């Protein structure tokens, strides 16, 4: 009897020492926050860069603080991406900024503009679109943008300003690492809306392991930074904050 009891005790002891594989294999949920529209000394830039989490900052090229914002973000350990201005279906061209990609450009000029934007923003690991509801639905233009991304080892993150876009299919065909935005924090500038969207992100985490969400510097910048800061501990209960590059499988990501 003693032998049997000892054997049972040993088995229990071994069981207790064995890692619980079902727990160990549960993937950690991940949130990648992208902040758009840096590069023009926009309101909230300082507060956003000082957030105590890794983020991804999207910097517009050819603007007064494009380079210094990229350098500061890189120094603080954030990911830098190029926030490439792209023609929208509605809205003024003047909102686009310099070096914008429009559907009336020749293929050669589109390639040239993307190349120049890459040169203008140091440390970039990817590209996302500023506006762009017209361009992201245009196969000719997006094919060139994605080809240049591939040549430079850059990922493309679709801000999803148009439901009709062709980007995901083209990115798969061309082998460009691709992510897409799932939620805008501050498409409406009120505190109430930004808090509501942040709670929506927490709710989405119940059904999703990876979330990409976009906020902005500029008019909502300070509010967005303050609300994100307040919600960091709450989101950390459910997920870890990562840079966009962490959501791309390493084998696809050439740097
Ligand atoms: Zn933008």
UniProtKB/TrEMBL annotation:
<dbReference type="Pfam" id="PF04748">
    <property type="entry name" value="Polysacc_deac_2"/>
</dbReference>
<dbReference type="InterPro" id="IPR006837">
    <property type="entry name" value="Divergent_DAC"/>
</dbReference>
<keyword id="KW-0732">Signal</keyword>
<protein>
    <submittedName>
        <fullName>Divergent polysaccharide deacetylase family protein</fullName>
    </submittedName>
</protein>
<dbReference type="InterPro" id="IPR011330">
    <property type="entry name" value="Glyco_hydro/deAcase_b/a-brl"/>
</dbReference>
<feature type="signal peptide">
    <location>
        <begin position="1"/>
        <end position="24"/>
    </location>
</feature>
């Amino acid at each position: 009897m003693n032998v049997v009891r000892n054997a049972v005790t040993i088995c229990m002891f071994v069981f207790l020492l064995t890692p619980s594989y079902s727990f160990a294999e549960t993937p950690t949920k991940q949130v990648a926050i992208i902040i758009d529209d840096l590069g023009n000394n926009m309101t909230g830039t300082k507060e956003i860069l000082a957030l105590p989490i890794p983020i991804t900052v999207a910097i517009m090229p050819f603007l007064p603080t494009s380079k210094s914002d990229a350098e500061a973000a890189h120094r603080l350990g954030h990911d830098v991406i190029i926030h490439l201005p792209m023609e929208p279906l509605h809205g003024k061209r003047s909102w686009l900024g310099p070096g914008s990609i429009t559907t009336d450009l020749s293929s050669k000029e589109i390639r040239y503009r993307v190349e120049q934007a890459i040169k203008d923003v140091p440390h970039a690991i990817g590209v996302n679109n500023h506006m762009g509801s017209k361009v992201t639905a245009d196969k000719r233009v997006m094919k060139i943008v994605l080809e240049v991304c591939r040549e430079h080892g850059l990922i493309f993150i679709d801000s999803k300003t148009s439901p009709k876009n062709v980007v995901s299919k083209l990115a798969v065909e061309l082998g460009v690492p691709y992510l897409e935005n799932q939620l805008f924090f501050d498409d409406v500038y009120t505190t109430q809306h930004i808090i509501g969207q942040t709670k929506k992100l927490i709710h989405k985490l119940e059904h999703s392991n990876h979330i990409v969400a976009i906020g902005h510097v500029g008019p909502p910048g300070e509010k967005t930074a303050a609300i994100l800061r307040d919600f960091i501990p709450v989101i950390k209960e459910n997920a870890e904050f990562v840079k966009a590059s962490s959501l791309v499988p390493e084998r696809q990501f050439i740097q």
